[in-house]
Fold:
Amino acid sequence: MINSQVEQALVNLKSGKPEEVGRALEMLQGIVYGFGMKVCGRPEDAEDTAQETLIRLARQLKDFPNARALSVWLYKVAKTQCLMSRRKSKFAPAEMLTLDALMPEGSGTSAPQVKSWEITPEEITLEKELRSKLQDAVLALPKHYRLVLILRDMEQLDTREVAEVMGISEKTTKMRLHRARVFVRNALAGYVQGSKSSRVEHHA
Amino acid sequence: MPDRRCKRIFALLSDYVDGVLPDGDCRELERHVDGCEPCIAFLESLRTTVEACRRYGQSQMRSQPPQLPPELRARLVGLVASLRHESAHRKVPARRK
Structure:
């Protein structure tokens, strides 16, 4: 899904008028800064990422055929800049997440250990505590999983766009996304729950 | 998700949550999960996690970045405007003599 701000920014950039170009740069700065905050978790890194990305955009400005092309280019450059500028993190995550490690413990006959979750999807308001736990969980993800989760579930790019930004196949994108989601889900266990009246929704 | 035999089903859960699981896999997953309370609870908690991520993403999009330093902003605006100007001129076909 292409952010409508990217569409507007492209129109403004193409106008070449200083005022509109200025507004476009501010819009794109906002998008890249937000992305940088999620990936790096530090304002100074997000700010560096946004500035470096805009400098590259201005230097290498080419005729983007549409907002999608600009969006993918922007995230691709921002991703690289963010990883390059990322200062030493307090987190030292393992590089690989395996399904075996992520699956809940339990055997076929014993009670499975699915921890209780306390709030329902309808009740999520992302109060401070949940926001903090979510942010910590995302930052604890190995970087290649973290980027896929942020691009897909937070920036709301589609699978193909995420694959293009990351330079990987759609299959690998989906695999990383699933493992990242389960990792975050496990980190939030005991805090968030499924709907109390939960049942399987049969797809048509 | 009681035992390792569930591993294949477990790997399909995100596609199911996203509504992109092929029909055959979808039926298999629903047969497996329906009536299994731990599986249903896990599936719902995964769905809730995805929703929490989306809301977090949206809330972060509304946060304001610091202003670009004025001199950098001016330099970038000038650079983009001049490149657009050059590009527009290059597209005009040369007149034949």
